Amino acid sequence: FVAKRLAGRKVVLTAGPTFEAIDPVRGITNISSGKMGYALARACAQAGAEVVLVSGQVALPVPAGVRRVSVAGARDMRDEVLAALPGADVFIGVAAVADYRPLDVAEHKMKKKDGILTLSLTENPDILAEVAALPDAPFCVGFAAESRDLDAYAEGKRQKKRLPMLVGNLVQDGMGADDNVVVLYDDAGRHPLPRAPKAVVARGIVEHLAGLLAVAGR
Ligand code: C5P
């Protein structure tokens, strides 16, 4: 079991997909079961942390010892993250945030018409990049799910978003599944973890995170 390596710490996480409304009954979303984020929230709580999980729509129970805040869209998720952030030592962005949302949300259900329907999309905020750029930013951990060239894309995202730690995985290895195989990236390089159930992978991530926090003197 995880030793209480995060005792006295507050951790805020995002998990699951965001849902960007088109009209009252339709929207666009990303595919994300939320399993990895929920496993990580549980592992943080088991390691003694106070945990706030800002979650998109998933079919998972709230892990013991975790406070869940349910959201739909990326802007909603961003607002709830910022509200939960005071006092946080660590922020972990696991959510599959939609990069774009419909520019206009129809107030009533849209009616079918002949021909092509064009939707205009506008960019969503990058929650993780925004939190990492705060003057008093918590220790920020990112995730990158890639379909190829994992090392290059994952390390590129870590550098671009200025993150001390990022967890990378290939989508074909982990998406929707109960097992995952991940690589951790930090200033010292890459650290592959063995394929394991997401609960075990989550404990490995927490171990590494706790080690980096200690080294950083935070
Ligand atoms: O989408 P991308 O691959 O850039 O996601 C990398 C990391 O950034 C993930 O940790 C994800 O949760 C986070 N992210 C975010 N807000 C976005 C896009 C991504 O917090 N709009």
TrEMBL record:
Q: Does the keyword Magnesium apply?
A: yes
Q: Which UniProt keywords apply?
A: Decarboxylase, Flavoprotein, FMN, Ligase, Lyase, Magnesium, Metal-binding, Multifunctional enzyme
Q: Which reaction does it catalyse?
A: N-[(R)-4-phosphopantothenoyl]-L-cysteine + H(+) = (R)-4'-phosphopantetheine + CO2; (R)-4'-phosphopantothenate + L-cysteine + CTP = N-[(R)-4-phosphopantothenoyl]-L-cysteine + CMP + diphosphate + H(+)
Q: In which pathway does it act?
A: Cofactor biosynthesis; coenzyme A biosynthesis; CoA from (R)-pantothenate: step 2/5; Cofactor biosynthesis; coenzyme A biosynthesis; CoA from (R)-pantothenate: step 3/5
GO biological process terms held by the UniProt record: coenzyme A biosynthetic process; pantothenate catabolic process
Q: Which residues bind CTP?
A: 99, 109, 125-128, 143, 157, 161
Q: Which residues form the DNA/pantothenate metabolism flavoprotein C-terminal domain?
A: 6-210
Write out the ranges of the annotated region (Phosphopantothenate--cysteine ligase): 11-218
Q: What is the UniProt remark on how the cofactor binds and its stoichiometry?
A: Binds 1 FMN per subunit.
Recorded GO terms, molecular function? Answer: FMN binding; metal ion binding; phosphopantothenate--cysteine ligase activity; phosphopantothenoylcysteine decarboxylase activity
**What cofactors does this protein use?**
FMN; Mg(2+)
The answer, when asked if Metal-binding is one of the entry's keywords, is yes
Which cellular components does GO assign to this protein?
phosphopantothenoylcysteine decarboxylase complex
What's the EC number here? 4.1.1.36, 6.3.2.5
Q: Which domain of life is it from?
A: Bacteria
| Family note | In the N-terminal section; belongs to the HFCD (homo-oligomeric flavin containing Cys decarboxylase) superfamily.
Q: What does this protein do?
A: Catalyzes two sequential steps in the biosynthesis of coenzyme A. In the first step cysteine is conjugated to 4'-phosphopantothenate to form 4-phosphopantothenoylcysteine. In the second step the latter compound is decarboxylated to form 4'-phosphopantotheine.
Q: What is this protein called?
A: Coenzyme A biosynthesis bifunctional protein CoaBC
Organism of origin is: Thauera linaloolentis (strain DSM 12138 / JCM 21573 / CCUG 41526 / CIP 105981 / IAM 15112 / NBRC 102519 / 47Lol)
Taxonomy of origin reads: Bacteria, Pseudomonadati, Pseudomonadota, Betaproteobacteria, Rhodocyclales
What fragment of the whole protein does this chain represent? 181 to 398 of 398
